[in-house]
Design a protein that fits this description.
alpha+beta; binds phenylalanine
Length: 383
C-alpha cells in the first residue's frame, strides 16, 4: 500500500493499535517527504516557471489545507484515534508538522536549481523543443524575488511550542469567539464577581465574547480528552485596550495545562524553571510570587532573572533585575469538576503567558504595535 492509500485509512483499518505502530507509520511519512524533496532538488527544473510549478505541486501534495497528505493524516489518523492512542498520534502529528515545516517546501518554489538537461522529457514544457531560446546576456543582473520571513511572534510561538513538545505536551486549540460559559463560568468566575473585570472583554452579545485569554480551552480540552492531559494552547486573544507601546487589542497567549495523578506545585516549578532555562539560557533563575486567579489555587506570578544583565538592572528589565513571565497556579478543584474530571483522583497545574511580550523581551523591541503594522523593513530583520 502506498502512502496516499495509507493516509486515507484510519489507524484501526491499518491494524495499528500501539504507540510503536504509530511511530513507524509517521517515520515512513517523514522519510517520504524528505526523499521527495531530495529527488526534486536533484532533478531540478528546466526553467523558472516549471520550477515554480514543480515546487508548488510538492508543497500542495503535502501541505494543502484541503486534501494535502498532512490534512488527511489529521482527518483519518488523528481525529478518529481512540483515547489511548490519541496522545501518541497527536505528538507524532505535531512532530511531522514541524518536520515538514523544516523542509521549507516554500523555498523550493523559488529556488529549485535550473538545469535544462536534467529534467525528464515528459516534464518539459511542450513547446520547448521547438523554440530556440535567445542567447542569454550573462552580464545582466539576475532576477531575484524577495523571500518572505516568518513573523517574529510566530517564531517565538514555535520556539515555545518546541520546548513543550519535547517535554511530551501536545498542541490544542479552541475558538476565538467563545461562550460566556467557557470563558467565565466554567473557570470559576461567577457573574457579578469583580474579577470578571480583570479581563477587559469584548462582548459579541450577552452570551458570547471574543476570548480575552486562552484559559477557556482548558475546559474544552478536559471535556474532550479527560485525564491525564498535557497540552499547550497557543492562540489569539482580544482585550478592550487602547493600542499603545505595550498594549494591543489583539495579542497572543500560550496556555499550559498538565493534569495527572499526584501532580504538585513542585512539578509546576520544575517545569517552568526548565522552560525558562531552555528559552533564556542555563544561568537564569526563576522567582514565584503569590497572586490570584479564580481558576487556580494557589496562584502565582513567575519572573525570570534578567538574561541580559543577570539581575543587575538594565533597560530590558527596567532596572529591576527581573522580567515578569506569566501567571500560573494549581488548577482549582471546581475547574476540574467543571471539565468533568474528579478532583479527588486528579490534580494539575496551568499557566498563561503573552507571546508578543516574550518576543519583545527577546529582541529588545519597545513597541508592540510594530508587530502588527506589517512594515517589511521591520519584519525582514527576523528572517
Ligand atoms: N488566563 C490568565 C490571564 O490571562 C493567565 C493564567 C492562565 C493564570 C493559567 C493562571 C493559570 O491573565
Amino acid at each position: 500500500m502506498n502512502i496516499e492509500e495509507k493516509v486515507r485509512k484510519t489507524l484501526a483499518e491499518l491494524g495499528v493499535n500501539g504507540a510503536q505502530g504509530v511511530e513507524s507509520l509517521f517515520a515512513e511519512l517523514q522519510k517520504s517527504a524528505e526523499a521527495e524533496r531530495a529527488q526534486l532538488i536533484a532533478r531540478g527544473a528546466p526553467n523558472q516557471a516549471q520550477a515554480e510549478k514543480l515546487g508548488k505541486a510538492l508543497r500542495d501534495r503535502w501541505l494543502a489545507r484541503n486534501g494535502g497528505l498532512l490534512s488527511q493524516v489529521d482527518e483519518y489518523w488523528l481525529k478518529p484515534a481512540g483515547k489511548d492512542l490519541k496522545p501518541a498520534v497527536g505528538r507524532q502529528f505535531n512532530e511531522l508538522r514541524r518536520f515538514t515545516g523544516e523542509l521549507e517546501f516554500d523555498r523550493l518554489i523559488q529556488a529549485l536549481p535550473l538545469h535544462k538537461e536534467a529534467c525528464p522529457p515528459t516534464e518539459l514544457p511542450l513547446a520547448s523543443a521547438a523554440v530556440r531560446p535567445a542567447p542569454r546576456d550573462l552580464t545582466l543582473p539576475g532576477l531575484r524575488r524577495p523571500l518572505g520571513s516568518i513573523h517574529p511572534v510566530t517564531r517565538m510561538q514555535r520556539e515555545i511550542e518546541d520546548i513543550f513538545l519535547r517535554l511530551g505536551f501536545w498542541i490544542e486549540s479552541g475558538p476565538e469567539i467563545e461562550s460566556i460559559y467557557y470563558h467565565f463560568d466554567a473557570l470559576n468566575i461567577p457573574e457579578s464577581h469583580p474579577s470578571r473585570d480583570d479581563w477587559d472583554t469584548f462582548y459579541v452579545d450577552s452570551k458570547t465574547v471574543l476570548r480575552a485569554h486562552t484559559s477557556p480551552v482548558q475546559i474544552r480540552a478536559m471535556e474532550k480528552y479527560g485525564a491525564p492531559l498535557y497540552i499547550i494552547i497557543p492562540g489569539k486573544c482580544y482585550r478592550h485596550d487602547n493600542p499603545d507601546s505595550t498594549h494591543s487589542p489583539m495579542f497572543h497567549q500560550i496556555e499550559g495545562l498538565a493534569i495527572d495523578k499526584d501532580i504538585t506545585f513542585a512539578d509546576l516549578k520544575g517545569t517552568l524553571d526548565f522552560f525558562a532555562k531552555m528559552l533564556f539560557g542555563e544561568k537564569v533563575r526563576t522567582r514565584f510570587q503569590p497572586s490570584f486567579f479564580p481558576f487556580t489555587e494557589p496562584s502565582g506570578e513567575v519572573a525570570v532573572s534578567c538574561f541580559v544583565c543577570d539581575g543587575q538592572g538594565c533597560r530590558v528589565c527596567k532596572q529591576s533585575g527581573w522580567i515578569e513571565l506569566m501567571g500560573c497556579g494549581m488548577v482549582h478543584p471546581q475547574v476540574l469538576r467543571n471539565g468533568g474530571i474528579d478532583p479527588d483522583k486528579y490534580c494539575g497545574w496551568a499557566f498563561g503567558l503573552g507571546v508578543d511580550r516574550f518576543a519583545m523581551v527577546k529582541h529588545d523591541i519597545n513597541d508592540i504595535q510594530l508587530f502588527f503594522q506589517g512594515d517589511v523593513r521591520f519584519l525582514e530583520q527576523f528572517g
